[in-house]
Amino acid sequence: MKDTTRRNLLKVGAAGISGMAALSGRAAAQETDMTGISPGTISSAEKLLGVEYTDAEREQMVSALEDQLSAIQQLRAVDKPNTLAPAQTFDPRLPGLDYPAAKASSATTASITPQTGLPSDSADIAFAPLTKLAGWIRSGDLTSRQLTDIYLDRIEQLDPKLHAWIAVMPERARAEADAMDAELAVGNDRGPLHGIPYGLKDLFDAVGARTTWGAKPYSEREMAAADSTVVRRLKDAGAVLLGKTSCGALAYGDIWYGAVTRNPFDPREGSSGSSAGSASAVAAGLCGFAIGTETLGSLVSPSHRCGGSALRPTFGRVSRAGGMALCWSLDKVGPMARSVGDLGHVLAAINGYDADDAGSLQSSFGFQPTTDFSGMKIGFDDAWLEAAGDVEKAAFLEARRLGATFVRFKLPELPSAPLPQQLLAEAAAAFEELTLSNRDDDMVWQEDPAWPNSFRAIRFVSAIDLIQVDRLRRLWMQAMHEAFEGIDLVIGPNFSSGMLTPTNFTGHPSLVMRAGFQDTRPRSIFGQPQDETAATARTPIAISMWAPLFQENTLLSFGAALEDALGVAGERPSL
């Protein structure tokens, strides 16, 4: 079965009904009555587990279940901060295989050349790709401080309509911009991001602001005492932090404790999620680029909705240290921008092993774009055309004209619906305290697909079933490796291709990019029209590409060429 929306993916997980009711549930004051378990209790719980025992077997199980509950109570008494990763960590690399790009190398990064002809209109400057911004800074036509003030002014003017920022940090931003201007004046050039202002998804610590995770129960956390790794690396690269962009509460959706983040192309609708504020801010020209995350669609979905580009790197390539953990075996950090090429410069800055992240991998990256695709093989499934819209079909046709050879690609015949059970279980473990203390009632979003309900329901999945899900994940890793054999990248629809779920669980990199526009009515977080009688608006449509592990440069090179051929990346929202 292939799920086509994030709602279906998480709804499958939230509706999962396997597990022992006697071993779980909502405990007031984190204490469970360990007495009163009877064969009748077990018989009722069997309906949730999908098994059936005999009367004698139930009698025999009573004492074992009481011992299990006692152990669980001891486990709950242990302090387990969000930063505590499980002992077992995910590695997307299959044993016995060679991944050349994952070895240490002296790869270089594409350089920036000075640009002249600075526009007089500040909006034209704000919407320019970071390569142009960096070029104007190199030529002296623009300073980082001037650019920072342009973005801060735009945020002040437009964010009351978009709600894309949880915390703006003007003092830090201007201080960093001044420092970068001073360095450049004496010839110290940190690289392509030198002096470029950016937005940071509010899952990551940055000195000068709280890290709220977009959730009401955490909105009054103490100010961050240190920068997260991604912030430190961007600072080392010369980037200027404008502030914290909004994210759906605990990295899901576009609803945070203060508002709903809006799509700049149609502010009547939310920006999807959960990198909602980063996508909205990039699309509205409120920063040069932004940082987002993806566990299961949180880079793809808001970029599709708001019309930006985003790169989901190979799992383990970018450190998550200093950021909120939702799902230790799935969380990934990636750049978001208005131009595909810009993503490569950001990835080059944030890439690298970090001992503070249990899932971090040693992997080199140097953005070296290529333009000759004559030897490239691109996978495509003709069946995807049946569900594709006109914009997607036109993009696929344009891709065929770039000189690569298109070959047949087939998604492995394995079920993907069970995989999100693992996400939900890890997320519920990461935020167990919310469920057991009833503080989940403080979350703003309380509908069926939202975290509070999902966290409660997933507690009824058995440990055995979760291990079987993990074994299925290994099957997917093996099958996807075979499916990519001899293929440089795959291109297809974001959601209806069925690629979103398995490639997140196998750790493969993905690029989402604007393909064109169509007229739509305001949509819900999951894409359904909210009002069939509402007037339509011109909104973006995106497509996705996927590549073998560690082959981000292939994605970015072909994506940049396709972006140029389509000629739609520069269209702006009329705010």
Automatic annotation (TrEMBL):
Record-annotated Amidase domain positions = 147-556
Q: Gene3D superfamilies this protein is in?
A: Amidase signature (AS) domain
Domain of life per record: Bacteria
Q: Which Pfam family would be a valid example here?
A: Amidase
Q: Per its record, what are the GO molecular function terms?
A: catalytic activity
The record's listing under PANTHER family reads: GLUTAMYL-TRNA(GLN) AMIDOTRANSFERASE SUBUNIT A, MITOCHONDRIAL (PTHR11895:SF7), TRANSAMIDASE (PTHR11895)
Name the family the entry cites. Belongs to the amidase family.
Put simply, this protein is called Amidase
Q: Per the UniProt entry, what species is this protein from, by scientific name?
A: Henriciella algicola
Q: What is the lineage of its organism?
A: Bacteria, Pseudomonadati, Pseudomonadota, Alphaproteobacteria, Hyphomonadales
